[in-house]
Amino acid sequence: MLIRTAEARWEGNLKEGKGNIRLGSGAYDGPYSFNSRFEQGTGTNPEELLGGAHAGCFTMALSLGLTTAGHAPTRLETTAKVHLSRVAEALTITSIELITEGRVPGISAAEFERLAQDAKRNCILSRAISAPISLKATLLA
User: Fold this and answer.
1) Exposed, middle or buried, 65 (CB in 10 Å: 0-12/13-18/19+)?
2) In Å, how far from its chain's centre is CA 34?
């Protein structure tokens, strides 16, 4: 079993506080804040990171599906738009919009669409978004 890790640290209250997100691989280590999450401030935010991860996962799944079907892509590009809206007084991710383009020799638009829909249903992150989440909380003195 593979286990991937990421860490977040937050100091202070919600609006004036600041935090840092670090990926276990070391590929990203950077700031986030109320402003970067809910306004236009500098830094990243969890929703942006989720979008990047989902776009990457989906694009790899699509590449696999295309190659398995005998249509190796020369280039695939995907943008993920994570929609954050207020639902019953709580901010909620209401949808993730995947927009993909590909250069794939010898494939019809209908077959590309079919394989893209299959990749959307079956990529690891698409399946994980509805998976159960466990939590262990420890209060430190």
Assistant:
1) buried
2) 19
Tokens read off for 25 = 């691989």
Residue type, position 90, single letter: A
| Domains in the chain: ranges and CATH | 1-44 (no CATH), 45-131 (3.30.300.20)
* Residue 20, CA distances (Å) to 2, 6, 33, 126, 135 in order: 24, 11, 8, 26, 20
- Total-model pTM: 0.90
Is the Cβ–Cβ distance between 69 and 56 less than 8 Å?
no
The structure tokens 């430190």 sit at: 140
- Band of residue 131 on the pLDDT scale cut at 50, 70, 90: low
Mean pLDDT of 66-75: 96
